[in-house]
Amino acid sequence: MSAVSVSGLSKSFGLLRVLTDIDLPIEAGAFTVLLGPSGCGKSTLLNAIAGLEDTDTGIIEIDGTDVTQYEPSKRGIAMVFQSYALYPTMTVRKNMSFGLRVRSVPRPEVARRVDWAAKLLQINELLDRKPSQLSGGQRQRVAIGRALVQQAKVFLFDEPLSNLDAKLRTEMRVELKRLHKELGTTIVYVTHDQIEAMTLATRIAVMRAGRIEQYAAPDDLYEEPATLFVASFVGSPAMNFMRGRLLPGNAPAVQVGSAQLPLDGYRFRVPPTAGQEVIVGIRPEHVALARDEPEAQIADAELLFIEPMGADTLGWFQFDGHRLSARLVPQVARGISGRVRLALLADHISLFDPTSEARL
Amino acid sequence: MTSSRRNARIGRIGLYVLLVWICLFFSIPLLVVISTSLKSSDEVRQFSIFTLPAAPGFAAWIKAWSSACTGLNCGGVRVGFWNSVRILIPSVIISVMAGAVTGYALSHWRIRGANIIMLLLLFCAFIPYQVILYPLVKTFSTIGIYSSLPCIVAVHIVFGLPVMSMLFRNFYAGLPEELVKAARIDGAGFWRIFAFVMLPMSVNILIVATILQTTGIWNDYLLGLIFAGRDNMPMTVQLNAIATTSTGIIEYNVNTAAALLTALPPLLIYFVSGRYFVRGITAGAVKG
């Protein structure tokens, strides 16, 4: 278990700036996910930590040692790649032990570690096969096994599950979580899949255009997104956004269309200004069919269509020029049509500044 | 039978007729050469080149191999054969391996100006020999190895390198970059990655490169004539000497036999390894 610290890291490819002033302290034993759309620099950041990519400025520390100038093999890391990158001419056993043999680890120790990893990943019977004789999921296990035998300080995963089919991906996700729990190692994991990030991470760094937009625990990220981008990127189905205005007066509230939502419990990061234009974000699960809520919080909306998703049904509504989604109980959703009264649960909304896109 | 099916069948027959014609067109010279080489000298003189040998025999082949005369030297083409072999082996091994290393370095290691190097290589591959022959001769004489085995080997390596490097670069560029990354994290360096990860994956392209170089160097005439020196004249040069010797009667049967003997090694290589050739060329060509 080792801590990783990235500070002041920047990186350009020619004129293109891919990473800008990245600060990322990672605690020992944490499962940190770098999340973002493609091209946001998350893989470049991971490669920089691995030492596969040179950096322009900034310092990378592993276990308190400045490793910025170290070769990848000297950093005490192991890495799993999206394409698995198994050596095609070697058997699984040779693949897993290659790094150890390069480092001249004694033979019995190599055998012991390979057996240990093979047992942990349930790939014992595959050890003498070539990678081409394995399925995608098996290759993925071997790739993880090759990283495990290194007994590295930090494990780096570069979109390891994105080449697997949906069912296998879910299985491997659970497997990875189990491994992290059993081994307690520090993991840095890159993905563009926000569900993977939410389920696996102890802490998520959401990246956009070479910057970290928010670095927080999954729950915090979900409940209090720091920027409009984080709010829209995390959560599926996505958060609803509507234009609103802060109301003047003693009790803070926000006007959205015909509805007025009280903001008593809202933790403003900056003192609000009355009359300010805002973007109101509300997640689909916080839009419900109205029962006995105060009239002010009711949105009079038109049902567009419903999307059954199994456990829930997503209802899509037209309200005040916005398209609004609500997570509904399937049995209830089947019974609605036409104009519907929706309650907007004000306790769970997020407010953003329309120009800076930051949370208010 | 419907008319469209009949038309298709007629088309098919037409196609085969055409193919047979093309086959004959290209194989007749070869067949004539083979048949002439199996005749006796008298038979060659008396009958047309298209008549088949009355009593086929390998006398001309044996003479061509062991006692045909080049000027005053009557040792047959075998002298040239062994010269060609001695030129071929070091030239092929060194040019292929050097090309493999260069291609690997240019494709998987960030080298400043790698693209410019590639451009220069491409340019070099198309420079006509004639332009640099004289400067090369001067250079080698200055160094003092002109007209020797090392000289001709060096020339073949230098002329082979651009194409070899590009062939291997294109092949290696098609392999995932992550493979090299994984090996670097595993602690392997430039040479170890080359030897244990890249080379074992390169069997097909190595075969292709070897074929290209072997046939190219074996068939070379000009460079051998200029750089090899009297004692190392390759088989092609000697074949020409035998065929153009103007003293006495021209022995067409011996000449054709010598020509076939010279052509045999590349022919055999194509027959044995044709499928690798096609496979490897496409493997190298698809991604680049």
Compile the SSE list and pairings.
The complex is a heterodimer of chains A (about 350) and B (about 290).
Chain A: E1 4-13, E2 16-26, E3 31-35, H1 42-50, E4 57-62, E5 65-66, E6 77-80, H2 92-102, H3 107-121, H4 136-148, E7 154-158, H5 166-183, E8 186-191, H6 194-200, E9 203-208, E10 211-216, H7 218-223, H8 228-233, E11 240-246, E12 253-256, E13 259-262, E14 277-282, E15 287-289, E16 298-308, E17 313-319, E18 322-328, H9 330-334, E19 339-344, E20 350-352
Parallel strand pairs in A: 3-8, 3-9, 6-7, 7-8
Antiparallel strand pairs in A: 1-2, 1-4, 4-5, 9-10, 11-12, 11-14, 12-13, 14-20, 15-19, 16-17, 16-19, 17-18
Helix pairs in contact in A: 2-3, 2-4, 3-4
Chain B: H1 3-37, H2 41-46, H3 59-66, H4 78-108, H5 114-125, H6 129-143, H7 149-173, H8 177-185, H9 190-201, H10 203-219, H11 222-227, H12 235-244, H13 252-286
